[in-house]
Design a protein that fits this description.
164 residues; mainly alpha
């Protein structure tokens, strides 16, 4: 059955490449997506106990490993932003970070938090600065490009914790 899915995927990719130039791209894309969803539902109906166990395992992994390793960083970052530390660090570091990355000094806080804590915090802090109009859209895109990383503390807290 796995070979069947691989063959369907390869055929779908080839069809996308072929029909994109013939004007049938949207119709084939829709039919392919419906077929993939149908196959997934079919597998859920055939193997319900495996699906339920995998779902339970995934939720427990998230609740016991990922959430505890990320929550302190989210809370700490929001506290530091609320206390005004971002502005303070931004003023101090702007002469260094502006010529290198062409972003305002506030990005240095985001960079430091993303390097230490990991992927989601850099994106979240960038989003918060963009929503409060501290940075422009192009600056936010630049910040995301170098602040969307997996930090060592997240790796130690989440990944190493699971393997031990």
């Amino acid at each position: 059955m796995t070979n069947f899915i691989i063959i369907i995927t390869i055929i779908s990719v080839l069809l996308f490449l072929r029909v994109k130039y013939l004007g049938l791209y949207k119709k084939v894309k829709f039919i392919t997506l419906v077929s993939i969803v149908f196959i997934m539902v079919f597998y859920i109906l055939i193997y319900p106990s495996e699906i339920i166990e995998a779902t339970r395992s995934g939720i427990l992994l998230w609740a016991n490993v990922v959430l505890p390793s990320l929550l302190p960083f989210f809370i700490g970052a929001e506290l530091l932003v609320g206390l005004g530390l971002v502005k303070f660090i931004g003023v101090l570091i702007e002469p260094i970070i502006r010529p290198i990355f062409h972003v305002p000094g506030e990005a240095s806080f985001i960079f430091a938090m993303s390097i230490t804590s990991g992927y989601p915090i850099g994106v979240k802090l960038t989003s918060n600065l963009r929503k409060s109009n501290v940075i422009s859209q192009s600056e936010a895109q630049r910040i995301i490009s170098f602040c969307s990383t997996s930090g060592p503390l997240f790796m130690i807290g989440a990944v190493a914790n699971v393997t031990l």
